[in-house]
UniProtKB/TrEMBL annotation:
It comes from Halobacillus andaensis. This is ATPase AAA. GO terms for molecular function: ATP binding; ATP hydrolysis activity. InterPro entries: AAA+_ATPase (IPR003593), ATPase_dyneun-rel_AAA (IPR011704), CbbQ/NirQ/NorQ/GpvN (IPR050764), Gas-vesicle_GvpN (IPR013462), P-loop_NTPase (IPR027417). GO terms for biological process: gas vesicle organization.
Amino acid sequence: MTSLTGSIKPQSQQDVYNDPYFKSLIKRSLRYLSTGYPVHFTGPSGIGKTTLALHIAKQRKRPVLLINGNKDLSNEDLIGAYTGYRRKKLNDNFVRTVHKIEENISEEWVNGRLYEAVKEGYTVVYDEFTRSQPETNNLFLSILEEKILPLYGTKRTESFIDVHPDFSIIFTSNPAEYAGVYQSQDALLDRMVTLPVEYMDEEAETAIVMKKTKISEKKASAIVGFVNRVRGLCENDVASLSLRSSIMIAQVVERYNIKVKGDNSEFQDVCTDITLFPLQACSDETESLEELKEKILVECKEV
Ligand SMILES: Nc1ncnc2c1ncn2[C@@H]1O[C@H](COP(=O)(O)OP(=O)(O)OP(=O)(O)O)[C@@H](O)[C@H]1O
């Protein structure tokens, strides 16, 4: 991606998204959404997909709803359900010797998270949608294809509600997670505009680490450089060595006043603790933990 040019240092999320790469991605995404197509951001964990999706969602000037995909997410959670009974009791003891009790029992409907969003035209960010079960994601097929939200199994008199014309969805996913997981994802993927999100350059990552942790630019840049060098050791792209790892290291060293220096054993420990497991996930199985630790230490000592 293009780097953040010029002498102006990015200081805020706004500035990060002023980078030409993000500017263009945001503009294109808003156009697809306004034309009625959902957008799908895909890329490795911790790269900034959710933050970008929420940033774009906010620009649409409609209420924003964030849904996190997971295997327990059910149609009921999304559509709504009759969740119990409401009992109304009227005690009439106007005449002391006569007790009149009137009971009125009715089932109570509670709207699911999507119900309101579909009806009122919210912008939904459906994070990690590939983690949900196919039956749950089928609901989204109806929304995208027929522009209705079916009210399956809800005993409601109407069998669906129409999708509001302003309703839109931004999906996010991690490609390492959806390879062949559920077939139904393919039908959904077919109906959205999938945009890969690239790693930010080091300058942009440094700006974000500074903003999130209040650490100095010099330290933030050293930490980001270290994390990116460790990511360079990966054999596959399952890595979650990203912005998130840099933020974690920066937060800990800042809070406990740990010197950001390669020969400081406390700094070495933090670097190893935070990057060893993700590095193992993206490395050959033949490499032992000790070997990976050694590699991390080599990079850490460069700081
Ligand atoms: N533009 C940004 N401004 C400020 N912080 C950001 C920005 N982009 C990402 N971050 C921060 O970086 C971290 C990772 O970002 P985010 O959760 O958006 O990544 P993700 O790709 O959605 O990760 P996952 O796939 O694991 O959900 C978060 O702490 C987030 O707050």
